[in-house]
Design goal:
Layout lengths: L1 H27 L6 H29 L3 H29 L3 H15 L1 H31 L4 H22 L7 H29 L22 H10 L7 H19 L11 H8 L5
């Protein structure tokens, strides 16, 4: 449940910040008449994201006839979710400082076009978060809880609700939050969640007989980590840590978690030095005939 709550919190706060930037821009520029169009775009994005999540679940539970097909489907969606998580956390670390300016610029262009463009811009700004959330939630719920059941859904909704409250308080200046540290800590936790999803995807590939080694265990600590104990369920629910993983599962977990975590926590390099004044003047001064 922690994994799905974290996904809802992280993705929900990103979407909430996007919406708050758009709303604040319209309010400050005295274009409140365009707010309904923004909310329409946000609503359409949320509806499509929910539908996408339903399609994934329906495909797995109804359209696929054999156990092997379901295992393969879960494996592929798990790998896709890991790709999205990895891309998301690195993109947010890079774009966090410039996203507000980019959104304002795009909204200004949309306002010049008309209401339909404003709705479309708001839709596109939110839909990425929504589709990512649906895919990552399905994979995380499958890997940590054996399915996207009621508890996993409640955890996701709880995370999104928390994100909306935090976003509203930030918008009203009633709360101060170091977003850099927030996204760093949640990003690091999501890397561990993604490593667990990747491990689960490898397990599904093994269950489907695509890759070998299902019964070749890396270790077996069932005597120490009782699968039925609360702490074992907590570790499994958070990071998909199991008492008797296969060797290939553990290789996959380490091969993903270690390098990605190192790259993520590494301080970004210094920005390139500005061009010399003479060169800058030469580039901006019109040439005489």
């Amino acid at each position: 449940m922690f994994a799905t709550y974290l996904i809802g919190l992280r993705e929900g706060l990103e979407a909430t910040l996007v919406v708050s930037i758009l709303v604040a821009f319209l309010v400050k520029s005295d274009r409140r008449n365009r707010l309904p169009h923004v909310w329409l775009g946000v609503g359409l994005a949320v509806a499509l994201s929910v539908f996408f999540g339903w399609v994934i679940e329906y495909t797995s539970t109804t359209l696929l006839n054999t156990s092997r097909q379901r295992e393969l489907f879960d494996a592929v969606t798990s790998v896709g979710a890991v790709v999205f998580v990895t891309w998301m956390i690195f993109w947010m670390r890079k774009a966090a400082r410039s996203i507000a300016g980019e959104l304002r610029g795009k909204l200004s262009e949309a306002l010049a076009v008309g209401a339909f463009a404003v709705t479309g811009m708001a839709f596109l700004a939110v839909i990425r978060e929504g589709l990512e959330t649906a895919l990552i939630f399905y994979s995380a719920a499958q890997s940590t809880a054996g399915g996207a059941g009621r508890n996993a859904m409640l955890a996701l909704v709880g995370g999104i609700a928390t994100a909306v409250v935090i976003g509203f308080l930030l918008y009203r200046s009633a709360l101060k939050l170091n977003l850099g540290k927030f996204f760093t800590w949640t990003g690091a936790l999501l890397i561990l969640v993604a490593a667990g999803i990747f491990k689960y995807g490898v397990h599904d590939f093994q269950e489907a007989d695509v890759v070998p080694g299902l019964n070749t265990h890396a270790f077996d600590i069932s005597s120490v980590l009782d699968p039925g104990s609360w702490y074992a369920m907590l570790l499994s629910g958070m990071f998909n840590i199991t008492p008797a993983p296969s060797l290939l599962e553990m290789v996959a977990w380490v091969a993903y978690a270690v390098p990605v975590m190192v790259l993520f926590l590494r301080k970004p390099g210094k920005p390139a030095a500005p061009a010399a004044p003479a060169a800058a003047d030469a580039a901006t001064t019109p040439q005489r005939a």
